[in-house]
Input
Amino acid sequence: MTYVTADPKGVDAGPHFLDGDHALAEGALAAGCRFFAGYPITPSTETAERFAERAPEVGALFIQMEDELASIAALVGAAWGGQKVMTVTSGPGFSLMMENIGLAVMTETPMVIANVQRGGPSTGLPTLTAQQDMMQVRFGSHGDYNIIALSPDSPQECFDLAVEAFNLSEFYRVPVFIMTDETVGHMHEKVVIPPADQIQVVERNNYSGPKEDCRPYNFNRQGGNPMVRAGDGYRFHITGLTHNEKGYPAMTPEQNVKVLTHLMEKIDGNAEHIIRLEESEVEDADVVVMSYGITSRIAIRAVQDARKLGLKVGALRLITVWPFCEKRVRELAPRVKAMIMVEINYGQMVRELERVVAGRCKVVSVNHCGGAVHDPQVILEAIKEAAQ
Amino acid sequence: MSCNDNSACGGCNARPDVLPNTHPHKDESLLRMERMPHIWCPGCGIGSVVTAFTEAVKRSGLDMDKVAVVSGIGCTGRVAGYVNFDSIHTTHGRAIPVATGLHLANPDLKVVVFSGDGDLTGIGGNHFIHAARRNMNLTVICVNNFTYGMTGGQVTPTTPGGANASTTPYGNYEYPFSLPFLADAAGATFIARWTSLHSRNITQSIEEALKHPGFSFVEVITPCTTLYLRRNRLGDGVDTLQYYQDNSILKHGADTRDTAIDFQGKMVVGKFVEKIKPTYLDAVNATCAKLIGDDYQLYGKTPPEKDAEKKAAEEKAAAEAAGATAGGAT
Output
């Protein structure tokens, strides 16, 4: 990835007291996002409001679309129009976006989508926290595909990961998701926005070579392929149909092998470059407590309490949730007694953990039906039981 | 080169496996000839609209590199893949929001939406009314053949009452939309309707629509020979063109409330609405200029402007350096 320093116009440098939703908008602006299309939905709306308020002074454009289907569709158009683009939503809106998330994946359109998760299913718990869309973000649109999903645990990290999400999205030409939650979204904390020259961003890589060599696609299973910007004279075509390098429909099983393998492998094949984890006292641990987002701030308390009781426990926080940290889990599984997944859902990422552990250690799910965060005591009890 | 004989090939795009390509299309430079033959049936009206469109773009004087075509799903959805412009073939019903994003992200473009009646006013109906309401600066061309052709002839929101479709095998129970009326009520600022018989009028209207600042809408009634005509025993494409000739009532400026189409009834055609009001982006820019000042510019300076500024600064610095050296020497 080639970095440049951020455009100072979008960077409101200095210390702030922000909630996670507002920090997302600031992160997007700092990363160079200049187009935001959204639709109001609790508990994500504050991001849209912040972007709308800041747009004129930054020279960005905010539009409230008629629904979430339109919001995500507008991002596809705006990205090919040359802008860095973002939307934000929550459960029901996320469901509505699914079809065109597939279009964005298929057309390899960079965009950032934040899901400030709330309890479900259906209208569920609009104002209360959850982490119930972790499988939907990976598998919710039809067909096989791959994406990147990050999970911030604080307003500061909402800012930081928004910048990182744009960088990953631009490089891998894939929708990148910020899977935050109502608690982080509405929690106010200190957020320090660095000066523009300390923020590293990946710029849009627009093709500028000869017209006859212009190809919107290169199925080389890598990131870094250039985009083509509308209006630059290349007269490109893109489609949601299975296509060739020129972007023309090529609907054969053979072509789908090329396209699909590329879409999967540009992420999975580069997982080690993409994945970021935060570990604490994992090296000598008998039990590893995995968590992500707001849950990790509860889990760490339980881990500390367990350590005080003399239990060998470590904490592993997934900053990157998708792609899943298979390599690290394979390293740890034979060395530990148990791995515990703590999450505010009925047990979603724990399935991925079970798949990768493949019986080499005990896997425990500490789940929660949503609406609140875990009681650290519940996690502590699970640790005690797992350590036996 | 122009084509004078469509009788043998059923249109200008001769299938190379059937006929030698002795009929070069008059707008080859604006079509992706490498993608021919196209998928449309003999007698289908979509080709006539595409021809009118390419001719209109030429006449409009627009920079061809700054014209973009967005379409959804269906037979008309394939237009984006055949025209030689920047083009996006999107999902079903979503051509207008994708076009909205493209236009707003890159206001130098003239973005055109090609859409069928089902795509535009069934699954995409919400986007249609909202883009019209915003007076978004888009040209929307609807090829209305009263049917979902790609999926085999199902009823659409414009299918006339009583007409037979594969999902209304005993006749359509529903009331259809009149699209000019719908567009008018929603706030479109340019509205015209023709049939595919009216090649020159379609061309003229699309040219005007392309030049119109704001939401411009051109509806073209076309025959779906394979499905709608056959299922309703209405003959072939030529019979339909005869029907169009006999039943079109030219009425420029007609009240759009009077533009409903009954099954095989009369059709009011013409330019119904043309008015000027600020577009969405006009309103954004006016407000932001008031807030920020006259040097407000959406997205800041364009890359060429930035390059020019950088170059000017470098030249200035070089000149100053040269001046300083010269001054030092004397």
User: Anything to note?
Assistant: The two ends of chain B are 69 Å apart (CA to CA). The mean pLDDT of chain B is 91.
